[in-house]
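ingest -> validate -> predict -> emit
validate: passed (alphabet ok, no gaps, 341 aa)
predict: started
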Amino acid sequence: MMADVSRISHGAAARGRIASCMFAATMTVLLMAGGALAQTPTMLVLRAVPTKSAKSGGSTAALPPLVKGDITEIKIGGKAAEITGFDPLLKGAHTLQIMILFDSMQTLGAQGQFDDIKRFVGDMPSNVEVGIGWLLQSHVKITQPPTKDRDAVYKALVPQTREAAGNPKNDNGNPFSCLRDLSAHWPDADATKLRAVLMFSDGIIRSNAQQQGADQDNPDVEGASQSLERAGIIPFPFYWLDPPPPVDPNRGEGGPLEGQQNFSQLVRDSGGSALWEGMFAPGTPGPLLNRLEAILQSSAVVTVNAPGAAGKFQRLDIKTSRDDIKVSGPDSVMIGNVWKK
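emit:
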């Protein structure tokens, strides 16, 4: 009987060892499967910026094209993200939507400035859709959703009259509140399409009487920047201010430094670029639109396997082996490019 008990004991032990091995193998497979599921394809719009360039807005340094070899490491949420795709932003495989926004308190277009904007739109390749809207009472009034129909865009470029710009009902409310509204109500929810906004405004917040120090971040601008990042929208604020006389002599006009300071804050973390030249608005938008076109041409769409579930907002870190450039992009990214309204 003792021998039988021994055989039973050894058999039970063997079966226990087999069960333990099977359990361990099963857990390994599950963990590996879980790791595979956690790799979420995510698109990043990146560009190379010369390290010796001037401050944002006034840079005239040549923009080198970003190539895959410039990037040595990408981390999302502190974890390595494998690069699986690299395409040019313009003339590439991905659709880019650009919303062009005009300030309802400005008369841009009344003196032929829309000719330069039409040229810019016409120069965009076939993978670019363009929409038109107005900053109005802290919201964006869409007059033309993003489309590849250039004629439809041209027809939507209706200049604002001086009388309409001076009407209190056409107050923009706050240009950065308008951007937050656009972030929440982008006219196309397709996550396979990339997003950018070109906003013509002086960047001055007239609805908030709170004084802002030169070394302080504006909370309205910070909120807009974070909203744009979460919605995957690259901002390109264009400093524009009507020449005197003002459309409304009773309206506080602020100053160019305030608007440009706000623009610098807006693009600092969201991966965009502020467009201005000197302290005053340009006589024509043509040269700065040429600069924007050069920025878009030098940008690339980098697809990575992001470590995490879709919909998580994680910090983005990029390393390059070159010391003459830095790779510019947003500080954080929504994994899987999941745009939540």
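Residues 96-283 form a domain with the Rossmann fold fold (CATH 3.40.50.410).
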